[in-house]
Design goal:
Length: 225
């Protein structure tokens, strides 16, 4: 028998994604219909400012509750994240999940030229054998942070049951086959300057985000103190 069409479910997912994009737009984090210079030198029409994603508590709570609802059928002991934005979101997810999981975080750093995530020693005692862990991220780009967190969890004998995120860049993100749920799943179209259709049309290039990153650089040494 031919399975029934899933058009309604697909449409619902599209509508939900539009609502979530609209919410992110209202925080000022999501920019669309622009012509933006990326730090890589590529041009794009869309951009997300990660630090602004979780600045509106009522929006973050609402989005966290949607992620919690998706994973409500699984018992979860710990919600784990890393980075300030993801930690705010993970609090909201944990608060709304029926298992009343605890919230923990890893800290990011670089050692020996490699990106690493480590857990504060106190958390090593609290993540026990066979615990069920939900990883929460704000944005998933390469999936590297999720992989590092998964290694930490599995090294402690616990199990990652899934990954919840606000935004997943679909082309790049690879999270080793873990069930992943993101409110928005889309990649930005990026173009090299010489073949960029917006450049061809003469649309002015917005360099604001690259300038902002560069102006932050001198203070980055201070942030680590
Ligand atoms: Zn361009």
């Amino acid at each position: 028998m031919v399975p029934p069409p899933r058009r309604n479910a697909l449409m619902d997912a599209e509508v939900r994604e539009k609502i979530h994009l609209e919410i992110l737009k209202r925080t000022g984090a999501y920019h669309a219909n622009d012509h933006i210079l990326l730090p890589s030198g590529q041009h794009t029409t869309e951009y997300i400012e990660k630090t602004l994603v979780t600045t509106e508590p009522s929006f973050t709570e609402g989005l966290g509750a949607v992620i919690a609802k998706h994973f409500a059928q699984w018992p979860i002991d710990v919600v784990l994240s890393t980075g300030p934005g993801a930690l705010i979101l993970s609090h909201c997810v944990a608060r709304a999940h029926p298992s009343r999981p605890t919230v923990m975080y890893g800290t990011k750093g670089v050692s020996g030229g490699k990106r690493r995530v480590s857990l504060p020693a106190e958390f090593h005692r609290l993540i026990r054998q066979n615990n069920k862990v939900l990883i929460v991220e704000d944005l998933i780009s390469s999936g590297q942070t999720v992989r590092l967190l998964t290694e930490l969890v599995e090294g402690l004998g616990a199990q990652v049951v899934g990954v919840g995120a606000l935004w997943r860049r679909t082309k790049k993100a690879d999270v080793d086959g873990k069930p992943i749920f993101s409110l928005v799943s889309r990649d930005f179209p990026t173009y090299p300057p010489d073949t960029c259709p917006l450049c061809k049309k003469g649309v002015p290039l917005n360099q604001e985000f690259v300038k902002r990153r560069e102006s932050r650089k001198p203070s980055s040494a201070l942030e680590k103190i």
